[in-house]
Amino acid sequence: MAPHQEKKLAEERKYHNMQNGTKASQGQWGRAWEVDWFSLASILFLLMFAPLIVYYFIMSCAQYQCSLTAPLLDLLTGNKHLADIWNRTPMLTYRAAGIYSLWVTFQVFLYMSIPDFCHKFLPGYVGGVQEGAVTPAGVVNKYQINGLQAWIITHVLWFANASFLHFFSPTIIFDNWIPLLWCANILGYAVSTFAMIKGYFFPTNAKDCKFTGNFFYDYMMGIEFNPRIGKWFDFKLFFNGRPGIVAWTLINLSFAAKQRELHGEVTNSMILVNILQGIYVLDFFWNEAWYLKTIDICHDHFGWYLGWGDCVWLPYLYTLQGLYLVYHPVQLCTAHALGVLVLGLLGYYIFRATNHQKDLFRRTNGHCRIWGRRPEYIECSYTSVDGTRYHSKLLTSGFWGWARHFNYTGDLMGSLAYCLACGFEHILPYFYITYMAILLTHRCLRDEHRCSSKYGKDWERYTAAVPYRLLPGVF
Ligand code: NDP
Hints:
By secondary structure, this protein is mainly alpha-helical. It is 63% helix and 7% strand. The chain is built from 21 helices and six strands.
């Protein structure tokens, strides 16, 4: 290579590094730049096995009445071969492909074509055009918050169909559950692959891209921070909320309809699961503007983890309780049902109140009251890639004085309640609490690592003031 070309290349590399902040002391917050062997091993494991895990759970219900051990035993004892199980698995059908395409297209239409009207008549609801947090490159994105309206329109149409239009049976989702799984996988892989290619060739904001140099890590954790098509189609906001979370409540309703069709009644456990998860979903859309300030939007890049996770993992594994109850209709005694309800509502209250305290505190820049008192906090600062210094505050009173992630604790209590609604006959419905415990503990550590690089010494002062993560006195 000619010397002048080498010099030019070196300059380009230097410029690229500065832009992405790799070697700068500032702007390191976000996902890892250097991939350690453990992260790489976990990523390879998930890329290979996560789709199989989803298939295993759904197949266990369809072929083994939700027993997780029976398929394994069958295979180990030679009673069945993999081919036997696979041959009994429904394949992709034109009908499922049609339903899924229509579903995603309808959600894109609701997202892109109907500006929010809910904030005009619902007091306290924050919708319409809202701003996200400052990205590491110093960009502030605008979002059209209209998820609540998409959820309402979708559910009004669902109930209109179930009550008097009768275009399709409310059991349609259950009846096509495995063929729809193949469609969700196709979309999940397509969108993640597209996001990777886009990150390389036509990123929305080049300064917010990260390249670790490891193909698998970049594919899994994403390159682009906020990939968009046009001004408004934001991949993260769309794929996380719809089609995944709008679908969550419809899937549960379809399972309830199937339970009634098969067993002649909807059990109190199925009602509890529908109500508690319905509250969680509705809360998500009511607070969609707040969601712009959560880790998913503020810190994670968009790759397979979010793209495939939102399309497949979330709708298929977060709804396992409802699916289980179709195969095992559990009628709980009053004390058990009440216990589940109280735990679920208490968990929800803690989850919401904790998130609300932080949101209020940050929105008002500390000029608010937490539990009737002026908030206590620690002043902190950080620097974005372009060298701009920002000031912020970390709340140390209210639930945030009890533990650094008490919102996760509330979430875990709610998650446990969904599982307990299914009784104690099988472990399959308890997958959710196990998964959430791992997810949220890992998230604590990941978030703290990021905050520590973002705030440095200020973060150390904060952890000294609030020493526990999830449970005061324990962890
Ligand atoms: P948080 O809402 O707790 O956000 C963490 C961020 O808040 C930190 O990175 C930091 O960001 C800021 N922060 C941390 N401590 C303080 C403090 N003391 N005062 C003010 N700001 C602080 O976490 P998540 O985004 O992970 O979760 C949001 C909610 O979503 C949680 O309740 C969680 O349970 C739920 N969740 C549910 C999932 C599910 O699958 N069901 C998955 C993930 C989350 P900054 O850089 O702005 O300082």
